[in-house]
Amino acid sequence: MIHSNSILKHRRVLIVDDQEINRDVLGMILEDGYETLFATNGQEALDCIRQNDYDISLLLLDLMMPVMDGFEVMERMKKDPLMQAIPVIVLTSEKSAELKALQLGAADFITKPFDLAEVILARAERVIELCEGKELISSAEHDSLTGLYTRNFFYEYVNRLYLYHPEQKMDALSLNMEKFHMINELYGREFGDEVIRVIGKAILSFLSETQGIAGRFEADTFEIWCMHRDDYAPLLETVLASLRDSFPKISLHVRIGVMPFDGATEPLLMFDRARTACNRARGDYQNPLVVYDEKLKKKEHLQQQLIHDLQAAVEEKQFQVYYQPKYNIQCDPPKLCSAEALIRWKHPELGMISPGEFIPLFEENGMIHVVDKFVWKEAAAQLSRWDETYPTLPLSVSVNLSRSEMFDSTLVQQLVDLVKENHLDFPRFKLEVTESAYTDDEKQLLDVVSRLRNAGFEVEMDDFGSGYSSLNMLSSMPIDVLKMDMKFVRNIETNPTDRKLITLILDIARYLKTPVVAEGVENEAQLAFLKQEKCDLVQGYYFSRPVPAEEFEKLILKELQIKRNEP
């Protein structure tokens, strides 16, 4: 390949020879194509490289020189990471020196007396281009922040290792930072980059003790392919200790998923399973290291089946809506006034499936809207039937809105149409939004809630007190009802702090003129305390667990009987 002189002039060639005639000859051959520099011995050569900020494209190096010979120059260059990248062509007339020069990193040889000028130019240009090509590959091969492999190169090398060394027992690991996006938002991207560098360095330290390679993908995703071991707690501790040492004032957490060698699973599937294990550890600061095992495998297969069966569950009405009553306890006896609509799944093969199995799954994979819309439709139709059958007891029903729905531009119109189709009063078809949803995109979510309220809906904040935003958002949050997280109620009898927090929440709600629903009420003592503290509404097993519509009607009839017997 022939380059124009204007490009080649940017390449510097350092000619190192103690014989002036040799320097002159090589200088004349190269001067039209390169910027040439000269040194008479090895020490001058090293000094010249440093003075030019290591910006040398090629070293033409004589082996036999005073002060410092060419062999020592190459030995020193091997120990300097910046000099290692400079290619060396050795100038020699002794064949016996070639092997040692190759072992020290020489890229080529030019024999003395010198070949034709065209041959020397061709050798110089070939070595420089090979080196520059290697640098280009290296820049794509390695992540710029950590020096670990990039995704494509990592998987390529993993597959080669697996192909050529199938006898080696290798594990697949996936490592993630907890809430890395929040770290960037709170402390800035430069800080986040430094966190990533520290993790990368800790992984390299771990790999220095075992055979393996590692890659960094996207923001905070790391994957490792290494020799099998029984315990990866030392790796976790290495990473966490590095983070503590580097950022002592900030609490940083990572999670690791491990797919151990099993002799049957190919690498890509092993990494899929390692990521599954890593995801299981999300938010679990007590157990941040999860190993993919038979139990997790069964759970993964179950989840795949549930995803596959979702549409049939809707079409065949395998889903059932249950209703848990809410009672006004500031009257005697407590009065049934509302219900929360909750989903249940009666699977034809698996039987009754807990919402804890499928709700988080569909939230994670983006299919929760299918479930929610089924509940909305069924609950609205049921409330309409109750209005017709029991007109003297105008109940309300609340349904849940998942986070993903709050960012659907058609949400408000969908709900408005549903209420109108069923001839309901808007305030009696209540909408519950979890408190944690407000932390995702506060501005947009507040705007959506405001539009829902302007349409006539009442909005309840579910799980109030479980997240980070409770107190600082109350002043601006457009809500109509607070639903107090059940963890406060659970410990009323044993934990004075929780009792005090309940009192505080109720005081704040009264100041804001916002009614409060307490969830999880299970016994008389809890009910008595909440009534004493002027809590408005409660729900929980004390009154009833969630029940199908036909059983809920028994509660309605009981309430009507009480109403008829009132003086």
Task: Please describe what this structure looks like.
48% of the residues lie in helices and 19% in strands. It is an alpha/beta fold and 567 residues long. It folds into 3 domains: 5-141, Rossmann fold, CATH 3.40.50; 151-292, Reverse transcriptase/Diguanylate cyclase domain (Alpha-Beta Plaits), CATH 3.30.70; 319-556, TIM Barrel (Alpha-Beta Barrel). The strands form 3 sheets. An 8-stranded mixed β-barrel has the order 11-12-14-15-16-17-18-19, surrounded by 4 helices. The protein has a 5-stranded parallel beta sheet with strand order 2-1-3-4-5, with helices on both faces. Helix 3 (42-51) packs parallel to helix 4. It is elongated, with a radius of gyration of 36 Å.
In short:
By secondary structure, this protein is of the alpha/beta class. Helix content is 48%, strand content 19%. β18, α21 and β19 (537-538) form a beta-alpha-beta unit.
How do the strands and helices of this protein lay out in sequence?
Blueprint: H1 5-8, E1 12-16, H2 20-30, E2 35-39, H3 42-51, E3 58-62, H4 70-79, H5 81-84, E4 88-92, H6 98-103, E5 108-111, H7 117-141, H8 151-164, E6 170-177, H9 180-187, H10 189-207, E7 212-217, E8 221-227, H11 233-246, E9 254-259, H12 267-280, E10 289-291, H13 294-315, E11 319-328, E12 335-347, E13 351-353, H14 355-365, H15 368-389, E14 396-401, H16 411-421, E15 429-434, H17 442-454, E16 459-464, H18 470-474, E17 481-484, H19 486-490, H20 496-511, E18 516-518, H21 524-532, E19 537-538, E20 547-548, H22 549-565
Parallel strand pairs: 1-2, 1-3, 3-4, 4-5, 9-10, 12-14, 14-15, 15-16, 16-17, 17-18, 18-19
Antiparallel strand pairs: 6-8, 6-9, 7-8, 11-12, 11-19, 11-20, 12-13
